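Methods — Computational structure assignment.
A single polypeptide chain was analysed. Its primary sequence is given first, followed by the predicted tertiary structure written as structure tokens.
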Amino acid sequence: MKQSKNEINLGEGSVGRLLLTLAVPSVIAQLVNLLYNLVDRIYIGHIPENGGVALTGLGLCFPILMIVTAFSGLIGYGGAPRVAIFMGKGKNDEAEEILGNCTMALIVIALILVVVLQFAAEPLLMLFGASDNTLPYALSYLNIYGKGTLFVMLTMGLNSFINTQGFSKVGMKTVLIGAVCNIILDPVMIFGLGSVPKLGIAGAAYATGIGQCVTLAGYLLFYFARPMHVKVNVANMKTTGNVMKNIYTIGIPATLNLALPSIQVSALNAILAPFPGSYILVLGVYYKLQTFIYLTANGIVQGIRPLVGYNYGAGEYDRVKKITHTSMGLIALVMVMGMAISCAIPQQLMGLFTTSRATMEIGGAALRIISFGFVVSSVSVTFSGVLEGLGKGMPSLLISLARYLVCRLLL
């Protein structure tokens, strides 16, 4: 098959250039996602009279939205490395079978979640702390978002497979188009404009759903209209036992890896509960700040997985080692920059989120100490990504468990 101008050949060329070519669009896509989630919250917070309550209601939906993201990651992160390995071996038929199985799994899981959210939204929200005041707003958002779960899951899941085939710029552009659509529709549908009625928090849910549909339409158009080595084939849209077992073997540990930071924060909040409230605030601010550092590192990890999988499948083991070393160097560079900024202006960074002088001083001292761990963490971040690219999800999970729960919480 002739190579598309948007396609990156994962088996040839400079490893550093390939990593950057795959990682930069991934980082931009993640930053765009952060941006339009932030824009959603800004607009909702400015709803006249009840913006604060509406914003709290949206926050209550967050754990449920993370469940949808986790299931998408389970299939995407589980299937994409397997596709890359078979592509490296030149076995595109097997790779296409995996993609078909994953697409069907995304559809089945999404439909189950639609039903669950339709009938169990209220008890779930009450479980997460909804009150009589906040429940109507949370339900208004979740009932609409839940109906679009199929589009959300297909969008998130298929993105991994587009990046795996070397089309990272396509993945970035489709996410960007959907995000811009969402940002434009947010004020129109929340506050009303012309013939569009004022919908409040429900408008934010509609805008998000439409944005996801636009992104999914871009993916499907690309999958079916452009020349690709591995396409969604209706004949392969089934759930074969052995194929799904291999996907879950990688996907479950990779999904748990995503959940570990949240588990750690919950545990640390419990540990800090007897101390002054400013300590918990400092912890929350720190995790907001570190998101930007680790998001960049995670973009490099997104580039590691397909590169490692493809070259491992092709038997290019020396190239796999070079990818590992180069990735660690790039991630370490990101971490050094994060450490330098955190050490240079820690109080100013804390001041972005609080006006309390005492909190800024406590947080500044904490941030300066914590930042020295950034560079060391580049080892575990890199090897977790490499192991997932090799299809070895469990060792990757064990590294993360040691890092987040065993060492850090005990200390």
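Note: The longest helix spans residues 51-88.
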